[in-house]
Amino acid sequence: VVAHVGRSSGRSYQAPLDAYPTKTGYVLVARYGPESDWARNVLAAENASLRIRGEDHDLGSPRLVSLDEAIEALVDEPPADFTKAEDFVLMDQRD
Fold first, then answer.
1. Which pTM value belongs to this model?
2. Measured between alpha carbons, how far is 48 from 41 in angstroms, rounded to an integer?
């Protein structure tokens, strides 16, 4: 689940997304497209929080990347349905 803040409202939101570890953070599959509210909010705020198995990860430096860039950043081989997506948001883990 990705927690983010609305770019206009300032309200907190959560979006269930597929996220995969990268060498520097996580790649989020933008299944709803780069024009979806969650993606636009994360890009505008330049940060988000990702909860995986009860553990929160503070992420920053969001950027839209292509499928090739997303695959190159992954730690492991992508799952079979990964390549069906067209849009990805790559984010770095913050300390």
1. 0.92
2. 9
Task: For CA atoms 55, 56, 59, 62, give the dihedral sign.
Answer: positive
Q: Which tokens is 11 given? A: 């309200």
Tell me the DSSP string of 32-45: T-TTSHHHHHHHHH
pLDDT by 10s per residue, the chain, length 95: 999 999 999 999 999 999 999 999 999 998 788 999 999 999 999 999 999 999 999 999 999 999 999 999 999 999 988 988 989 999 999 97
Coil/strand/helix, residue 37: helix
Alpha-carbon gap, residue 3 to 49, rounded angstroms: 5
